Amino acid sequence: MRPTIRDVARQAGVSIATVSRVLREHENVAADTRQRVHTAVAELQFTPSRLGRSLAERRHAANGIVFPDLSGPYYAEVVLGYESVAAELGRSVLILSTHGRAAAPAMVEEIADRCDGLVVMGRTVPDEVVERLSRRVPTVLLARPHIAGIDSVKADNTDTATALAEQVLDSGARHLVLVGDPGLSPDLSERWAGIERVASRVPDVRIEHRPTTTFDEAAGAGVARAMSGALPDAFVCGNDELALGVLGELRSHGVDVPGRVVVTGWDDIMAARYAGLTTVRQPMRGLGARAARMLDEIITGSRTEPRHDVLPTELVVRTSCGNSRKETS
Fold first, then answer.
1. Where are the extended beta strands (E) located within 170-307?
2. Within a 10 A sphere around the Cβ of 103, how many other Cβ atoms?
3. What DSSP letter does each residue of 173-201 carry, written as one string?
């Protein structure tokens, strides 16, 4: 019986993925491991099949995308934008959600072996892993600070964070609570920096951070509940889901929003519009679509110079942060 790649892996004492990397001469394999694989190949007289050679030459007709998580409308919208363009280009999509697992780098390395190109979103893996991947497979960063030589696309967080902070401060708020952990999101880190920069120019403003381990409504409601005895003037939330949780908790206890407390979000998901939530509208589907097109340009060789695109966002003022300004949506 003709030996298979599985037989080689078993004889060398390594995974099938490692055998594949050795056969494609990837850099990230230890010298002794590489030697064991080559020895096993010689002893078994293993020859890669035509399919194996096709895979080694990266003809998968599939693109990969790596998310920190897949729960919530934000990620769903990004996926829809990415998948629609990939389908238009005749490519299938492999999706990996890392959920903060310690094994995330290995998981991302594995999916890279199964696709023609990879989009890496947020803080899913360290920069050194991304740099290594980019030498093996076309790579685009999404909603993550750019790395020299690697394509990236993100939404603007700076200008609209400034506009949002001014809106909140114009409402009279001086004690602001920032809801959400910037350590989990590069986008959020930029937003908080912009808000704090504006707040530093106004006397007597106090900013308090309330990190959350998730970005859902339950986490937002928990923050509002924990502060019910000493409410701030404003809850500035990292996304709309957190804000909707805060808003629901406050209203269930009869707190006047925006008379007593103002609440803001970010994203402008559909529920935000019905809740009268002041927020920042970002092009969620546009982010996914742009990442897919940029990746295709690299795969096909139609562009060789790296790009770092920043898509515009827009402050949307509604009743949860009401003042003299008119509602714009």
1. 175-179, 206-210, 234-237, 262-264, 279-281
2. 9
3. --EEEEES-GGG-HHHHHHHHHHHHHHTT
Cβ(78)–Cβ(285) below 8 Å: yes
Residue 99 corresponds to which amino acid? Answer: H
Give the C-alpha separation, 7 to 33, whole Å: 16
* SS3 assignment, position 259: coil
Task: With both helix axes pointing from N to C terminus, report the angle between 217-226 and 240-252 in degrees, rounded to the nearest 10.
Answer: 50
Mean pLDDT of all residues belonging to the chain:
89
Sheet architecture: strand order including 262-264 = 206-210, 175-179, 234-237, 262-264
Residue 112's closest CA among 146, 64, 69? 64
Return the sign of the alpha-carbon dihedral for residues 66, 71, 75, 81. positive
More confident: 27 or 319: 319
Residue 37: what are its φ and ψ, rounded to 5°? -65, -45
Amino acid type, 270: M
Question: Both tokens of residue 6?
Answer: 């599985």
What does the alpha-carbon distance between residue 190 and residue 79 come to, in Å, rounded to a whole number?
Answer: 23
pLDDT at 69: 87
Can you tell me the distance from the alpha carbon of 227 to that of 245, in angstroms, rounded to the nearest whole number? 13
**Which pLDDT does position 60 carry in this prediction?**
60
Is 154:143 a contact under the CB 8 Å cutoff? yes
The residue whose two tokens read 């795969």 is 299
Residue among 228, 232, 314 at smallest CA distance from 278: 314
H or E segment to which residue 65 belongs: strand 62-67
Written as six digits, the tokens of 278 are: 């002041």
Label the pairing between strands 175-179 and 206-210: parallel
Kindly state the tokens that stand for 259. Answer: 């008379």
Residues 13, 4: Cα–Cα separation, whole Å: 14
Cα–Cα distances (Å) from 33 to 23, 95, 317, in that order, read 12, 29, 59
Contacts of 201 (CB under 8 A, 6+ apart): none
| pLDDT tens-place string over residues 40-62 | 988 988 876 544 444 444 456 78
Residue 245 pLDDT > 60: yes
